[in-house]
Amino acid sequence: TLTISLHPEAGLTGRYQLDADAFDSSNGPVANTGILNGTAGFTTDTERGSVLDLDGGGAHVSIPTIFNEPANVTLSAWINLTDPGINGAEVISLGDNVLLRLDQTGTAGVSGAFHTDTTVGGKNWLSTHSGALLSGTGWHHVAYKCPPHSSSSSF
Fold this sequence. Notes:
Elements: E1 35-37, E2 41-45, E3 49-53, E4 60-62, E5 73-79, E6 89-94, E7 98-104, E8 109-117, E9 123-129, E10 140-146
Antiparallel strand pairs: 1-4, 2-3, 5-10, 6-7, 7-8, 8-9
């Protein structure tokens, strides 16, 4: 007999289920509740139940923190992209520090990027691209992991 027990909140700084509200369910040291902006709201999907609905016209959830300066960052989401817009659809962005974007212009596909500190000229973006275009292909789980103070990242 195999018993598997998952504790997704263990060690997390922020976790947002986005199935009825934008509350932080991580049980972290500080509750970082999200705020719905523009036309952001919730709708019922036949496969997933209640889900966050963003129309691509500026609707978003803002979270008033960048979670200090963690040694590692993982961004993940279940998505059903119907229209990537002109420059791709940004799924998660933590300030001007790290982001997860879908169907970025051209053939970059799913992309993740983070700012690296440099001694000359401030910050530079370090990007990783999957090449996988997801618009119109149904539900997918996407994830991007990076150590912001490094020179590597992965999907």
